[in-house]
Amino acid sequence: MASHIVCKVSELPPGERKIVELEGRSIGVFNIKDSYYAIKNVCPHYKVALCEGTVTGMPLPSKVGEYVWGREGEIIRCPWHGWEFDILNGKSIFNPHKCRVATYDVTVEPIQENLEDERVETFHVTVEDGVVVLHI
Fold first, then answer.
1. Which of the residue ranges 25-29, 123-127, 131-135 would you say has the lowest mean pLDDT?
2. Which CATH number, 3.40.50.300, 1.10.10.10, 1.20.58.220, 2.102.10.10, labels domain 9-111?
3. For the sheet containing 54-60, what is the strand order?
4. What pTM, to 2 d.p., does this model score?
5. Cβ of 85: how many Cβ atoms within 10 Å?
6. What is the pLDDT of residue 36?
7. What is the pLDDT of residue 114?
8. What is the DSSP string of 12-72?
9. Cα maximum dimension of the chain
């Protein structure tokens, strides 16, 4: 299993999503209340970009005559035909036992100090009295 850095934590605040292309797959990464989830960006109905849909909640079981709304920010609605899926586990809302989208593990890891050094050679730069000084 390969690991890919998607972004810094600060670049994906709660309630936001980021769609990435990795290993030939389009994947939506979501920050839901400071927990991170990833689902395949393909609706199984008509193969459209599911993660471009509306993130919403859903009605919860309640007594007759009551309407209880919950799970706000945990449900993704397909932009074409409104099929809804649970972002936390990929299961469809209408038929969770037979219809789902793939999910992927997401972790938050500390930034490695030498990460930049592995990608590009960089040098420390400071500004002194309006003069840019490069330290090699």
1. 131-135
2. 2.102.10.10
3. 54-60, 68-77, 84-86
4. 0.80
5. 28
6. 92
7. 56
8. S-TT-EEEEEETTEEEEEEEETTEEEEEES--TTT---GGGSEEEEEEEP--TT--EEEEE
9. 73
